[in-house]
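Q: Could you predict the 3D structure of ABC transporter permease subunit?
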Amino acid sequence: MKEFTLLRNDKFQILIFSIMFLFIWQIVAVLINNDIYLPTLGQVFNSIDEIINSKRFCIDIFSSVGRCIFSFLFALITALILGILSYANKIFRNLLKPINALAQSIPTMVLVVLTLIWFDKDDTPFIVGFAIVFPILYESVLGSITGIDKKILEMAELYNIDLKYKILKIYLPNIKFQLASILGSTFSLALKVVIAGEVHGQPTYGMGTMIQLEKINFNTSGIFGWIIIIILISLMLNICQKIILRRVFIWKN
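A: Sure. Here are the predicted structure tokens for ABC transporter permease subunit:
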């Protein structure tokens, strides 16, 4: 009975399928016998070991993660300010609509190319990360405020509740609740976009810079090594983010 329950466990199934995927990868890599197309698991792990032991590994990691956090926080703060202003002023909201729609429709690679033309290569990953994440956060903030039950606001007006109390007890909880559902995905998106900007912008330090270097050298195992490192970093950042969100949203319990 316990064995049957274990087989139906989602985490156990994911583990089994992951092992199966790695097993198939190894077999295909051995059959192809060409590490440029598909390296073996052993070659990938050797590349990871070389990457971790390189002198610039920590600098590359902190540079990319720092750009990601900075661009995300800047986008979040800007989205909060502009979202509140858009709610308060319809003209300002209509002014931002075409700008926001344009930012959402431009392909990431096109945005990277334009940013490289207009700005310094070291600034490109940050600007691209901000431009991709900001529209999502802005729409979420504006939607959370406009979605507040009108009856609650009418009741607050009826009892002459002051603006400070309404902000702290009505507006902010709704904004936080709405943002909590998308922060994880948008932060992961910011990390991917920042690294994509680094691949094309080639700043002095960054994971994307090293991926481009591996590509130039036809070192596919090195590219896969960086992919695995990025996945692990993304998972760790998501875990940290969930811990922070639990503390921020302890009022929900």
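Q: Anything worth pointing out?
A: The chain has one domain: 50-252.
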